[in-house]
Amino acid sequence: MTPGKAFFTSDEIRGLSARSDAWGVWLVIHCWGLILAAAAVFAVWPNPLTFLLAVVVIGSRQLGLAILMHEAAHNALFKTRAINEWVGEWLCGRPIIADLPEYRHYHLTHHRYTQTERDPDLRLSKPFPTTPASLRRKLIRDLTGQTGIKQRAQQIMFAFKMAGEVEGQPSSQDLAQAFSGPVIGRAIIANAVLFAVLWAITGLWWSWFAFWALPLLTWFQAVLRIRNIAEHGAVEFSDDPLRNTRTTRATWLERLLVAPYWVNYHLEHHLVMHVPAHNLPKLHRMMIEKGHGERMQVAPNYLAVLRAASSRPAAAAAA
C-alpha cells in the first residue's frame, strides 16, 4: 500500500499526482541551460574563479540530471511514458553514465523495503552516524576524484563481465554497477554529442574534460553522498514512513549547489512516490496542516544533517 494513503484521501493524492509536460520541458531546459551557461561564462571570462564556479554548478546539475532521471523512473516527469523513457535515458541518464531501466528496478526495490534488511540502499545509510573524521575522509575522497574514478572503473569492469556472460544481468545492482556493454556504448554516444556541443559553445576542445568529466568525478560525487546521507542517514531503522527518511529544509544556495529540483523533500516523496517533484512542497505543507509536523523527521538545513551524520564519538568508534 502507498504510505500516503494513511494521510491523504484518494482525491488529494490524485490532485497532487497530476503530471505536466510543461513542467517536464522546463526542468530539463533549466538543468541543461545552467550547465551550458556555466561553461560559457568561463569561455567569456576565463579565470580560476569562473572555472571553479563552472565545476561546482555543473556538478550540481549533474545531480540535477540524476534527479530528473529519478522523476522519469517514476513516470512523473512527463505525462507520456514513452517521453519519460526517452528523455530520462538520453537527456538525463546516459550523459552521466546511468541506465534508467536498471535504476528503476533498483530504486523501486528501495521504496518497497525502505530501511529494512532487504533495502538495497541500506549500505548507504546504515554506517551513519559515523565520526567526524570518517565523514571528512569520505568527502575528501569524493572531492579529489578517488570515489568517482573507482566507480567508473567498476562500471567498465562490470560491462566487460556482463559481455562475457551467458546469463542475464543480476536482478539488483547499485547505481555504480548497473551497466552492461550496450549501456556503456550508449553512454559513449551521448557523451560524444556533449563533447561536440561543449566544444562548439566554448571554442575549447578540452571543455568536455574540464566541464563534464571533472565535475562528474568530483563535485557530483560529493553532493550525491550528501544527498544520500540527508535522505536516510542517521534516521530510525523502522517501517514508520515519518521516521525512516528525512526531509531537509534548503536555502536558495543549497538548492543551487546541493539539493536541486526539490530533492530535499524526500519524506514526502516516500509517502506518495509518483507525485511530481514540483508538487512535493505542497504535499509537505498539507502534512503540516494535517498536524503531522511533530512526528516528521525534518532537518533545518544540510549542515545540521552532516552534524547529525558525524555525531558518533571517536572513542565509541574505537571501542
TrEMBL record:
One of its GO terms (biological process) is lipid biosynthetic process. The chain crosses the membrane at residues 23-45, 51-69, 183-201. Residues 48-289 form the Fatty acid desaturase domain. GO terms for molecular function: oxidoreductase activity, acting on paired donors, with oxidation of a pair of donors resulting in the reduction of molecular oxygen to two molecules of water. It comes from the Bacteria. The keyword Oxidoreductase does not apply. Keywords: Membrane, Transmembrane, Transmembrane helix. InterPro entries: FA_desaturase_dom, Fatty_acid_desaturase. One of its GO terms (cellular component) is membrane. This is Fatty acid desaturase. It comes from Roseivivax jejudonensis.
